[in-house]
Amino acid sequence: MLKAARRAANETRNCKPSFIEACTYRLKEHWGVGEDWDLGYRSREEGEQWTQKCPFKQLRKIMKLYGISESEIEDLEDLALKKVAEAAKFAIESPTPLGG
């Protein structure tokens, strides 16, 4: 995936179109922050299996293997959450795009 992202970024820099397909699993409902296990098209067990494969959990394991301390990981997580909150605030406070 990293190679594909690098290639796409280089193509974009050279004014060429690119496309990355990233297959993942949706852990929450289509909208909102709730769960939709009771709708019958997937089971809680299936979701729990995918939750264990969560990329963030895997990244945490890798970071520990490279000697990054728990406090450093928590600092990075806090920074990421802060950046997401800032981006959300900016989006909410921004005017609606024209025509939309």
Present the secondary structure layout.
Elements: H1 2-13, H2 44-52, H3 55-65, H4 70-93
Euclidean distance between termini CA atoms: 33 Å
Shape: extended
What is the strand tally? 0
Helical stretch count? Answer: 4
Number of domains: 2
Beta-strand portion reads under 5%
- Outline the low-pLDDT stretches: none
Report the structural category.
Answer: mainly alpha
- Radius of gyration, rounded? 18 Å
Overall helicity: 55-70%
Major β-sheet annotation? none
Quickly list its features:
4 helices; 100 residues; mainly alpha
Structure description:
It contains four helices and no strands. The longest helix has 24 residues, at 70-93. The mean pLDDT is 87. The protein is extended, with a radius of gyration of 18 Å. With 100 residues, it is mainly α.
At a glance:
With 100 residues, the chain is mostly helical. 56% of the residues lie in helices and 0% in strands.
